[in-house]
Structure prediction request, 468 residues.
Amino acid sequence: MTVLQVSALAIVALCGTAIVLNPSPLRQTLLMAILGFALTALFFAFQAPDVALSELVVSGIALPLIVLSALRRLADQNPEGRGKESSGAQAEPPTQGKH
Amino acid sequence: MSARGRTLLFLVSGTGLLTVLLIGLHGLPAFGDFHGVLSHAITTRELEARHATDYVTALNFDLRAFDTVGEEAILFAAVTGVVMLMRNMREEDHSERRRRADRHRFQGASEALRVQALLMVALLVAFGIYLDLHGALTPGGGFQAGIVLAAGPAVVMLAGRYLTLKRIAPDWMIEVLESSGAAGLVLIGVGGLVFGGIFLHNFLPYGTPDELLSAGTMPMVSVAVGLEVTGALLLIFSEFLDQSLLSSTRESGEQ
Amino acid sequence: MSFLPYAVGAWLFVVGLWGVVTSNHLVRTVICLGVVQSSSYVILLAVGYRSGGKAPIVADISPHSRLVDPVVQVLVLTDIVIEATVAALLLALVVQAHRRFGSVDPSRLRALRH
Prediction:
């Protein structure tokens, strides 16, 4: 095994553990993108460029977009929202979201 | 069961699971020592005859194209589920708020974000189209290209031009894009049925390797898959953000 | 040392499962499910690797040279796209659950049902 493969595997294991140990979903999203970069490096080291490109694109673009927009939707939403103002009508300060 | 009880139970059973997994994985051949007969047969005979130079995409869109049809069906069903859930919720809210929001400005983005979005949109769309058309030649193909293409309008949305984007590319247009991608894949398969007797048979001429129009139906399948993935991701993104970006007067106003 | 990829895959699986089991926020559950899925990618690609093998792109090398297994890479590629899609559907369900029950804590959801 090459040095690149060993170090990429170590970083992937570290990122995975860090994601699970972190309490805030917002920070976990950022760590998920970093795990995606580490997995991309690992897949390149395993001679799989097509898979590496797919992992980079999905974990760097698609997943953070989807999770962050879902988190924003959860923050905006009023749970007893039938018949009341339910989205975006609360006076939130612009820096909301730093857990 | 309380949270502490769950954690303790998992510590015991998780250790057991880890041990069993490690013992089981020891039974695999050593790392780097792959003896697969099927892959040897595929790479030395079939793929060379197809005149494709990217074996992974060629497998995905030609030899194992049936799995790709199944995956497209999964993507389609999941996006339909997301849209149904979110639209159900959207219609339950009062619709007059939407009319009010359309007259207001949405939450503005800073100048730096807007300039950067301007630079990135052209780059993303051009790269996405390149990846899509060269699916059978270089690493790339429908899935990657679809997501890169969807990142273009997503960047525009993030830079604050949400309402303008909704006027250029309304919801129904994105839905048509996604459905035509899914239907296009099945139609190519039916074309294989008509012209070759087998569903998803590669019925176009193979051409010379490393040219844009080579490897039969692979570029067409790549384009169909790219269209569907683009439409799917844009639909998901806009369904989640549809009301969050239309805020009330108190926090609106561009800077 | 040649067992390291499989060990990392097994570790990621168990650690991700731990995150799913002990989560107090439904979005945390979805993200840790993503970690579990990435463990399967590592194991699959490690199975298909041939030492001294090159990537299965034959634009500039001969098709008869020693290549890494492409079939396993097709499985992983499909899997990666499905991961993002399933995460999107799960998050739509989380948003719906929050709207109905007022909480994103899995244990509180159970309590509200009684």
